[in-house]
Amino acid sequence: MKITNIQAQEVLDSRGNPTVECTVTLENGVSASAIVPSGASTGTHEAVELRDGDEKRYLGKGVLKAVDNVNTKIAEVVVGMDVENQKEIDQAMISLDGTENKSELGANAILSVSMACVRAAATYKEIPLYEYVAQLFGNDTNVYEMPVPMINILNGGRHANGSSDIQEYMIMPIGASNLQEAVQWGSEVFHNLGKILKEMGYPTTVGDEGGYAPNLNSNEKPLELIVEAIKKSGFKPGEDIAIAIDAAASEFYKDGKYELKIEGGELSKEQLLDIYIEWVDKYPLISIEDGFAEDDWDGFKLLEDKLGERIINVGDDLFVTNIKRLERGIEMECANAILIKLNQIGTVSETIEVIKKAEENGFHSIISHRSGETEDTFIADFAVGSGVGFIKTGSMSRSERVAKYNRLMRIERELS
What we know:
CATH superfamily of the largest domain: Enolase-like C-terminal domain
Radius of gyration: 21 Å
Strand content: 15-25%
Helix content: 25-40%
CATH architecture of the largest domain: Alpha-Beta Barrel
CATH topology of the largest domain: TIM Barrel
Order of helices and strands: EEEHHHHEEHHEEEEHEHEHEHHEHEH
Mean pLDDT: 96
CATH class of the largest domain: Alpha Beta
Strand order of the largest sheet: 4-5-6-10-11-12-13-14
């Protein structure tokens, strides 16, 4: 089915900043839209999000150039193509852009079209989005695995200034029998944590991803409080519910050292590793994301050698959903998991390629949101269709996060 029209517009993300929405229309009149999210703690190796830089509009964060690129340059190439030829569509946009990091057209412009085409094709075929995604992967469309959610309940770092150096503290309901139970458990622990914080006299305001953002002046205290909240909810730490962190270590890496401002100290990679080992020994911590800075391959290697058998050692800023960087990580054996963010690479096809490469080499993949999210629930279907087994999509508050959990629960009900 041929694409007859592509139309982009500027809309807002969860932080009130502009982003790109694209609507793709087919010759039979079917149309579908997609909205692109935006990150705060972005890796320097990510594909480029094109912003206008005009201080008179949205403090320079407007995306009218990206919108115009969709409506003119991209439309010229993509209109007339078959919507089911996803690889060809994405490749046409990559070739048109002509840069390594999509800086000419903007990864936000390209991805909006890529995602909208996937949704339009699923709508045309009258099948759920997750089923069409499964077809793109070449997966069995009769069997689906619901992902284990990684639920952010305490925010720090760039997502909640002053609360902790570590950016995210998450819970993983590993003992839940299904997704709906996992969401229920997550909600109960989240609310009980809120009660604990309130009793301790801390505010229960939330950060960008919906987790609480108290000023605890400690990087370890959140782990203690989460264990307390898990127990208060009637669950067994490590058996029913485990803990995950996103250190986002690039944010506190400076001149070869790791500066933990909350604890007021400069650490070598070996000293930082010792802290992680201590936490893994002491708490039900089973996943560490970006434990070291984005180009500290040796730090990641140390972590993998010491803890790789016990934890999910996740590269986010390290890999930025980029196949070349992933290949280096595989070769070095410096991680065992990759965080997958569609807008880090900029097309659905390239994202699929990265996930397949990870799978072939025994790496876990975790489908992830961004801190500047939207109401679009594309990643929920993408997580189910890809069959990766994990999704990281924020807390049990803020509707742009909860929308993904609601979509996952609907999918599970539909499948059962």
